[in-house]
Write a structure and sequence with these properties.
Strand order of the largest sheet: 1-6-7-8-5-2-3-4-14-13-12-9
Structural class: alpha+beta
CATH architecture of the largest domain: Roll
Largest sheet: 12 strands, antiparallel
Number of domains: 3
Helix content: 10-25%
Distance between the termini: 68 Å
Number of strands: 22
Strand content: over 45%
Shape: elongated
Radius of gyration: 25 Å
CATH topology of the largest domain: DNA Polymerase III, Chain A, domain 2
Order of helices and strands: EHEEEEHEEEEHEEHEEEHEHEEEEHEEE
Number of helices: 7
Length: 368
């Protein structure tokens, strides 16, 4: 016997927290497995892809079987537990190289691999800087920049989020070379200066796992690794080794600006996007006295035009942008109004929040 008659959710909930990093297409079969360790009344679940490791555990004081550990296909065990009846009791029984899952009158026999072969990530946190921040706040900060990370780019250092601890402030920056998202927040105390690039997969997992609460997450930032401890989860991740672009140089300081209702301009862009070129996704932003016009067209000579009345007395302007980039920024600004700031027809656009210097979003222009 391995684990005796335990509530279904006590097994399913930990699996759901770690399943995101498990890939059945891994070169090594054991990386598709979850390591389950039982020590006294504690039961721990660990998954890794060699770059990230997530572990979570719970305590069941009624467990009396001997301590042991096993690895089993994470996805298969997860899928079995998802479909068994609510309130069911589950028993896991090890029989040589098999794991027998018993639920009511159902039995499932799964192949296992030895626990000693599971490649746990070696933690190397010497001289790490430890900071604390509310989970809900950090989740919101990541959401405000994560969409600007590069997806497929040979510049590997763009495929993540730059975290900068600068005195009493935490800055998060993401860019794919065509747009840049920046957000900053005040920390509860002063910390030594530190910078790391968190990989895109780690960022995505954090956004899923962080709770929208004031409960703190502890960040331990080392040169090549970061460990995050929150709720009942420990996430250890490698960091990207590379030189992030000079984000401060990218953020402009323009004097031509207009204040817009975020939802109104977002919906106008979404409508214009329907008839934009499917490959380049370009729209023209045309500014004139008290008017903002959004124009899109495509190779079939179809065109959309949206006009908005605005308070603007500056120079006329006609500049093109990728409409998806503009929509991404507005979707994640989470405020009633936004400010569009412009340079000239060859300059980027800066999107900010009125009265708030903490968020900046820059989109480079494109020729249409």
């Amino acid at each position: 016997m391995f684990i005796e008659k335990i509530e279904k959710d006590n097994l399913l909930n930990p699996l759901q927290k770690i399943i995101g990093i498990v890939d059945r297409k891994q070169a090594s079969p054991i990386l598709a497995n979850v390591l389950i360790e039982k020590t006294e009344s504690n039961i721990r679940f660990i998954a890794t892809d060699l770059e990230i490791q997530i572990s979570t555990q719970f305590t069941d004081e009624y467990q009396t079987s001997p301590d042991t550990a096993i690895t089993v296909a994470a996805k298969k065990l997860h899928d079995i537990l998802k479909v068994v009846p609510e309130g069911s009791k589950v028993t896991l029984d090890i029989n040589e190289s098999r794991l027998l899952v018993k639920v009511n009158k159902s039995k499932f026999t799964l192949q296992t691999l030895p626990a000693q072969d599971f490649p746990k990530v070696l933690e190397n946190l010497e001289q790490a800087i430890s900071i604390q921040i509310e989970q809900g706040k950090l989740k919101k900060l990541f959401a405000m920049v994560q969409y600007a990370m590069a997806q497929q780019d040979i510049r590997y250092y763009l495929k993540g989020v730059l975290l900068v601890v600068d005195g009493g402030f935490l800055k998060l920056i993401a860019t794919d070379g065509h747009r840049l998202a920046y957000v900053v927040t005040k920390l509860d105390q002063e910390y030594p200066k530190s910078e790391i690039i968190l990989p895109r997969k780690t960022v995505n997992e954090l956004i899923k796992l962080l709770a929208e609460t004031d409960e703190k997450i502890i960040f331990e930032l080392a040169e090549n690794q970061v460990r995050m401890t929150f709720s009942d989860i420990i996430l250890v991740s490698k960091v990207i080794d590379g030189k992030f672009p000079d984000y401060e140089r990218v953020i402009p300081n323009y004097t031509n600006e207009i204040t817009l209702n975020r939802i109104e301009v977002l919906q106008s862009l979404q409508r214009a996007a329907i008839l934009s070129n499917e490959q380049f996704r370009g729209v023209r932003i045309v500014l004139s006295e008290n008017n903002l016009r959004i124009i899109s067209n495509n190779s079939e000579q179809e065109e959309a035009q949206e006009d908005m009345e605005i308070d603007y007395q500056g120079p006329a302007l006609d500049v093109g942008f990728n409409v998806n980039y503009l929509i991404d920024g507005l979707n994640n600004a989470a405020t009633q109004t936004v400010i569009f700031s412009f340079g000239d027809a060859n300059s980027s656009i800066l999107i900010t929040i009125p009265g708030n210097e903490d968020f900046k979003y820059v989109v480079m222009p494109m020729r249409i």
